[in-house]
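Here is the promised in-class demo. Please do not try to memorize the tokens; focus on the logic of going from shape to residues.
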């Protein structure tokens, strides 16, 4: 009897692109860029190795000097950044792949030693996250950020717009706004990080305003069908607490973003199944679902059930450049080396083994 093909391997339209499968490489910080934010020399090989996946979403990439949080993360706002990313996108396209650059403004998750201008981090409000960060001189407490003025918030929106245009100039197929994982966009959502009393704080509509303005500006600049956003409803890391109104905020936010016709929303799922079901109903475009720790035998389950259009994987893709091939062959997966996740050179970056014609295939 013929075994039906897992729907994860079927093609799907996302924005203006037809993707060959429904697997997505989730964004993963690797901290291997040059100190000026230009992607590192090995980054092209890293992404090209994974070009068979339906969509690559790059590591978080800062849209400005203020946007950098961690040491040696890439940027996409200077000519050098654009030139560096163009090498990567061109090579990925030569292999038939698609690549979105994730725009990540770290907000208060930053340390002056890690940024080009060595200035205090910025955030919705002057509230420290109560966390440490690795810097050029080792682990340090993250200092209290400076609260952005309303005019500076608007300038930050403009920074995102400029970075999105720069990403397209660098050959990216589109951009993903990082609205998750306790960084700037999500800091505006959370009352624990946002105590503003102006148009960007207080009510649900006001706390969602920054995200909507960023998405609107980028969609105007590069096209809604090349613009996407990642969200992680319910995240509690690094002092983020969205409160009892959190789910209500996300229902409002998703409904408003839906009107823009973005390419996709990418959900980093934290376990609220009723909210996820509501997001699916409210969102009328492509939905990517990332379930941390999803077991291998559940790959494709959310696509098969209709809950998601695509599924994103991080560590599995990090450790398996030939992830798609291994899944189709029912082959064993490499285990990731956590000691090489951040920083370093080739080890744990571009040297994970790939299948040969006769090895690692399960009987």
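The designed amino acids, position by position:
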């Amino acid at each position: 009897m013929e075994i039906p093909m897992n729907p994860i391997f079927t093609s799907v339209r996302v924005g203006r692109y037809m993707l060959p499968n429904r697997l997505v490489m989730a964004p993963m910080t690797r901290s291997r860029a040059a100190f000026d934010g230009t992607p590192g020399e090995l980054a092209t090989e890293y992404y090209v190795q994974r070009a068979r996946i339906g969509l690559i979403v790059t590591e978080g990439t800062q849209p400005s000097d203020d946007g950098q949080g961690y040491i040696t993360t890439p940027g996409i706002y200077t000519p050098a950044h654009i030139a560096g990313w163009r090498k990567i996108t061109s090579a990925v396209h030569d292999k038939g792949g698609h690549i979105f650059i994730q725009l990540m403004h770290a907000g208060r998750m930053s340390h002056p030693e890690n940024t080009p201008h060595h200035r205090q981090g910025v955030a919705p409000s002057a509230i420290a996250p109560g966390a440490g960060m690795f810097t050029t001189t080792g682990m340090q407490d993250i200092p209290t950020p400076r609260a952005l003025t309303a005019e500076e918030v608007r300038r930050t929106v403009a920074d995102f717009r400029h970075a999105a245009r720069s990403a397209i100039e660098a050959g990216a197929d589109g951009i993903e706004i990082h609205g998750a994982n306790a960084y700037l966009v999500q800091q505006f959502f959370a009352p624990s990080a946002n105590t503003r009393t102006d148009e960007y704080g207080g009510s649900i509509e006001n706390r969602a305003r920054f995200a909507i303005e960023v998405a609107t500006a980028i969609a105007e600049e590069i096209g809604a069908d090349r613009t996407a956003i990642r969200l992680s409803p319910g995240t509690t890391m690094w002092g983020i607490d969205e409160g009892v109104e959190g789910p209500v905020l996300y229902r409002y936010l998703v409904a408003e973003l839906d009107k823009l016709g973005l390419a996709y929303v990418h959900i980093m799922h934290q376990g609220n199944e009723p909210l996820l079901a509501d997001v699916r109903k409210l969102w009328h475009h492509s939905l990517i679902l990332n379930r941390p720790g999803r077991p291998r035998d559940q790959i494709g389950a959310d696509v098969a059930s209709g809950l998601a259009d695509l599924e994103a994987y991080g560590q599995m893709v990090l450790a398996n450049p030939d992830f798609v091939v291994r899944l189709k062959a029912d082959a064993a997966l490499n285990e990731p080396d956590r000691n090489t996740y951040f920083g370093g050179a080739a080890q744990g970056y571009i040297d994970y083994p790939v299948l040969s014609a006769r090895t690692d295939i399960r009987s």
